[in-house]
Amino acid sequence: MANVLNILLKNTALCPLKHAVKPQLVSLFQTQVRTLYSESTLGIDGYKAQRLRTQNQLSNIAEKFRTKMHDYTSDDSKNMIFTEDLKNMIHLAENDDVDLIIKMMNRFNEQNKQLRFGTFVFGPVVMRMFYYLNKPDEALKCFKSENLKGFFDQLITYQLLMDLMYNNQRYQDILDLFEDIRERQIESTQFPRNIIVLTLAACYKLNTKESWDFALNLWNKLMEAGHMPMRRAVTFCAALALKQNNPSACLEMISSAKNQNYTTVRNLKVLALTQVGRIEDVLPILKSVYNQDDSMKNQTFNVDVIELIKEQVEKLDSVEVKQEFSKIHSYLKDNHISDMTLEEQLCLEIATPPFLGNKRNNYNNTQDMRYNRFQRRNDDFTKRRPFDSKRPGLSDMQ
Predict the structure, then answer these.
(1) What is the DSSP string of 107-128?
(2) How many CB atoms lie within 10 A of CB 131?
(3) How many Å apart are CA 122 and CA 370, to the nearest integer?
(4) Strands 337-338 and 355-356
(5) How would you label 182-200 residue by residue, b for 16+ Cβ within 10 Å and e otherwise?
(6) What's the chain's Rg over C-alpha atoms?
(7) Region Disordered: which residues (predicted)?
């Protein structure tokens, strides 16, 4: 398919343009800002719950604990930062605590290079903290820090960081991160599915020639590797092709989607066909919903897509096509036209993670699953602390 796409992009004569749509079709895709992955999908709701538990447990000593951690991270301090300290501070974190936590992470990571005290994986929970506090600059700086090399190498951590960038419209940062993540190839995964979705979403949002070239290059690599992107990745890339006036590429990309009847796939297909002037091929797709039951109400075609098709039909000389479309439109407007625009539907929040067997894909990293099992077994962090007879514990600060 990669070769086919390249040929199509270079040879527009392959597409009939008798009634080609002007670039006004691109106006359907007005950029909107919203989150891509929901908090539950990313585990942010779990982080919030643990914050509340930790704050309740340490309510009487929180400030003393903060002061102690400042002392322990001073340049002349010989004290060690233990797993429990960092966990508690991450779940107590407010905006003013970020610098302290970064110092604690650096010291913890340095002291653990020679001896690892525990199996707790901090990357995901630290990134959830940055996400919760909306600290994209600090998150990116820590991710790239040589002092924290290996600290954030988990697939869910990558997803959290890229989604944080997406929320802050840092789309170019996402593309830069993708190259870095590919080089790391954690768990021997060259093309993590959720990372691909976020990367192509960033390309779609940027909507520049450079981002289109990036997306097309990535798409070709996916096809060459035999990787089948998730539907959301396919629709972002195909929609970008339309934005960049490449309906041929859109049609080829859409053809790889497993479910050709899915609403965004269907809408993109009819738009691409409309853009290349093949209205006669659009009508059968519009009529394909005739036998669907009422459970598909308002889930079939987007209102702005139907309006654009209507405009193009009215420009045709064919009375027969106009009459047929009028009949189809009368049927569709009763049950099968959604008030949601295509842009809104393309960028809907991903609220429920895909299931792989009985495991949720938002914890598709074995280390992150181990972290969550560990966290459930140890909700009360103050009950256990490393043995250190010279050092006061949390209970000693009361």
Answers:
(1) HHHHHTTT--------HHHHHH
(2) 21
(3) 11
(4) unpaired
(5) beeebeebebbbbbbbbbb
(6) 26
(7) 375-398
What pLDDT score was predicted for residue 120?
Answer: 86
pLDDT of 32-61, one tens digit each?
Answer: 446 799 999 999 999 999 999 999 999 999
CA distance 283 to 367: 50
**Residue type (1 letter), 393:** G
With H, G, I as helix, E, B as strand and everything else as coil, classify residue 359.
strand
> Do 270 and 241 touch, CB atoms closer than 8 A?
no
In angstroms, rounded to a whole number, what is the distance separating the alpha carbons of residues 3 and 10?
11
252 near 293, Cβ under 8 Å?
A: no
pLDDT in tens, 251-263: 999 999 988 889 9
| The two three-digit tokens of residue 398, written as one number | 């009361």
Q: What is the mean pLDDT of the chain?
A: 81
Any idea which residue has 């670039």 for tokens?
23
On the question of pLDDT at 397 being above 50, the answer is no
Share of the chain above pLDDT 90, in %: 62
Specify whether the CB–CB gap between 242 and 271 falls below 8 A.
yes
Strand-strand pairing, 355-356 and 359-360: antiparallel
**Residue with token string 């075609």:** 301
CA 316 – CA 153 distance, rounded (Å): 56
